[in-house]
Design a protein that fits this description.
single chain, about 325 residues, alpha/beta, Glutaredoxin, Glutathione S-transferase Yfyf (Class Pi), Chain A, domain 2, 2 domains, 13 helices, about 45% helix, about 20% strand, globular
Length: about 325
C-alpha cells in the first residue's frame, strides 16, 4: 500500500496546520502547461511549493491524490486537489484577487479565448512539434503523448503531421501575426499596461515553440512586437518556490480535510445532485483513466468530487466543466 510505503520508508515531521493554505504544485520543468501556471504565480507574486513529478506514467504519488488523473500540472491546497490549468487559474483568482488576472471588464471574452489557446491553438502546436521531431522523438515519449493528443491511431497521425509540417506551421503563423499586430502600439501586455491571465494562456504556446522546435527562435524572430511581449512576460518571473517531496504532499492531504463548498447550481443540465456517483475525464479520446467519486459541488465552471482512500484520506478533486466529460454512474 502507498500509505505503508510512506509511513515506513519516510520519517517526515510536518507542521500540517501551517501547510493547510500552502500552494503545492505538482509538475515537471519541461511542461508547457505548467509554465502557463508558473507565469500565473508570477503575476500574483505568490510563494508556492514545488513537487517534481515524472514526465511519463506511471505517476503513483500524483494519481493517488487525483484518483487517476495523470495530466500536468495539478495544484494542491491542503486536501483540495485542482486539475487542469483552467481550474487552477480560477482558484488562484478566487483566493488571491489582487493583483487580478482580469484587469479589464472583458473577462468573459478572455475565458472564451482561453478555450482556443488551450484547445485548437495548443493542439496544432503539439502536432507541429511532434511532427517536426520525426524519428528523433523518444519512442516512449512519442507513444505516450501521441496517444494522449493524437488518438488511438497516433503513429499514423504522427507520420501525417511530419508530412504536412508546412501546413501546420502556417496554422501557427497566422495567430502569431495577429498577436504581433496587437502589440504594435507599444503596449506592454496583450490588454495594456498590466499582465492578465490571457498573457499566461498564450505565452505558454510561444514558450513551447521556442524551446521545443529547432526552428522556433528563427521562426519567432519574424514577430518583433511579439518577442518584445514575450520578454515582458518572461520578466514577470514565477513568484517564489521551494521544494517539497511527493510523500510530504500526500501526508498534508491525508491529515487535513477538504474545504470545498457543497451544492449544485440552478439549471444543472445533467441533473447532478450532491452525493451522486460520477466519473470525470477529459472530453477527448486520450486513453486516460476516468476519476470516480461523488458530487460535492457543480456549476457552469466547475465540478468537484469527494473521494476517500486509506492512502490519502478524504480529498476533493476539482475539474473544469469546459473540456471535461461527466458521466453518472
Amino acid at each position: 500500500m502507498l500509505y505503508e510505503t510512506i509511513t515506513t520508508q519516510y520519517k517526515i515531521d510536518l507542521n500540517v496546520t501551517a501547510a493547510a493554505s500552502e500552494i503545492i504544485f505538482h509538475a515537471y520543468p519541461q511542461s508547457p502547461v505548467a509554465e502557463k501556471v508558473r507565469v500565473a504565480f508570477g503575476i500574483k507574486g505568490l510563494a508556492w511549493r514545488n513537487v517534481d513529478i515524472p514526465r511519463l506514467p506511471p505517476k503513483p504519488m500524483l494519481t493517488a491524490l487525483t484518483g487517476g488523473y495523470r495530466r500536468t500540472p495539478v495544484m494542491q491546497i491542503g486536501a483540495d486537489i485542482y486539475c487542469d490549468s483552467q481550474c487552477i487559474i480560477r482558484e488562484l483568482e478566487r483566493r488571491y484577487p489582487s493583483p487580478t488576472f482580469m484587469p479589464t471588464s472583458d473577462f468573459g471574452l478572455m475565458w472564451c479565448l482561453s478555450r482556443w489557446t488551450d484547445g485548437a491553438f495548443f493542439d496544432t502546436s503539439v502536432r507541429h512539434i511532434l511532427g517536426s521531431a520525426g524519428d528523433k522523438l523518444d519512442k516512449d515519449f512519442a507513444q505516450d503523448r501521441g496517444r494522449l493528443y493524437l488518438g488511438e491511431n497516433w503513429a499514423e497521425a504522427l507520420k501525417q503531421a511530419n508530412a504536412e509540417l508546412p501546413h501546420l506551421v502556417s496554422q501557427v503563423r497566422a495567430p502569431l501575426s495577429w498577436l504581433n499586430a496587437q502589440m504594435a502600439d507599444g503596449r506592454a501586455f496583450l490588454l495594456g499596461a498590466q499582465p492578465a491571465a490571457i498573457d499566461a494562456q498564450i505565452y505558454f504556446v510561444v514558450w513551447f515553440l521556442r524551446g521545443r522546435w529547432a526552428d522556433g527562435p528563427a521562426f519567432l524572430s519574424a514577430f518583433p512586437e511579439l518577442e518584445r511581449w514575450e520578454q515582458n512576460v518572461r520578466d514577470i518571473g514565477h513568484g517564489s518556490s521551494s521544494d517539497i517531496t511527493p510523500e510530504e504532499a500526500i501526508i498534508i492531504a491525508r491529515d487535513l480535510e477538504p474545504l470545498a463548498q457543497t451544492g449544485v447550481a440552478a439549471h444543472e443540465p445533467q441533473g447532478l445532485e450532491v452525493g451522486m456517483p460520477i466519473s470525470v475525464s477529459p472530453d477527448v479520446n486520450g486513453g486516460e483513466q476516468p476519476v470516480t467519486g461523488t458530487v460535492r459541488f457543480a456549476d457552469a465552471d466547475t465540478i468537484v468530487i469527494d473521494r476517500h482512500t486509506d492512502e490519502v484520506g478524504n480529498v476533493c478533486v476539482h475539474f473544469p466543466r469546459a473540456g471535461y466529460r461527466v458521466d453518472v454512474l
